[in-house]
Request: fold
Amino acid sequence: MFSYWEKNFWFSDCDFAVIGSGIVGISTSIELKKRYPNKSVVVIESGIMPTGASTKNAGFACFGTVGEILDDLKTQTREEVKQTITMRWEGLKLLKEVVSLKEMNYRSLGGAEVFADKIAFDHCEANLEDINQLIYESIGVEDVIGSSKQDFSTGIYSHILFNKYEGQLNPVLMMRTLMKKAIGLGVEIINNFKVDTFEDSGEYVNIKLDRNMSMKARQLIVCTNAFSKALLPQVDVIPARNQVLVTKPIDNLKFKGTFHYDRGYVYFRNIGNRLLIGGARNLDEKIEQTLDFGENHHIINHLKAFVGEKLNISTFEVEKKWSGIIATGLSKKPHIERVSENVYTALRLGGMGVAIGSKVANEVVKMINLT
Reply:
């Protein structure tokens, strides 16, 4: 049972409603308030905090490895791959303009692509000059990735490809700051309410929430990423669950920075003297195409074995494990569209929400024209 005050002031009609309080949703609300400071903006979130991957990701500020880019070039045109890199680069730049490096505990430690053996490394290094040229055409920066020798004294090959422009951050501090900025601009956030349906009348969007609540918005932006098919069955969105593990502190942990393995499907980093490792969803691709948070023991055991066999850390204890759900699709391009007169989408981030979330928000708001 809701009070008069709650019904009429928390669920009052608004100019803009944004569904989803993750990176894209909150960034979209900020962009809307910057462009329309006198218009009302409400963010509706189904959980008590962002639900998908915004605060469950590994905290990588990255925009592409040689292995990933070569893999993308098998199914995409060169121009499409360049557009992806450009969007990630510009998205990270926009994020840093809103959230300071200190506010999200950003550390410019670089990003390394590591390999199982010399054959895998040689294949990527042979294409390094061309990939650097492609990156230059995308962002205007020369020689972004270089090859070097690094003695891991592990099962990892002794040479790496290193990107000095990448870094690591704390995703909760990032989201907390984004939310504070949004609220400071006058954005209202309604937590723990699920949008059941919405209907665009042409003049406004009628939004029906659970617990028999409803509200109207002049414009609606759907930013629910992997969870979007419940509201928009036609969109090309495939959920992809990722398993993540964090160890207890490890004495003399050698790794500092962000690391990618197997085209980025496996990733690891340090959190102080703890090791975070995640991914490997390609080992069980169909099973991991789910909206259910939970454990995949086959993948978890693979990640643990990777720590022992590849990173040569024989003694470690997992302190915390969880899963986050990202959105992929037939296309790597984010789904930024006007789907009806007053409804827009900003979703399908392909696991690169930290990098492209701010850019996706910026692009969808450019499409909107509210007088």
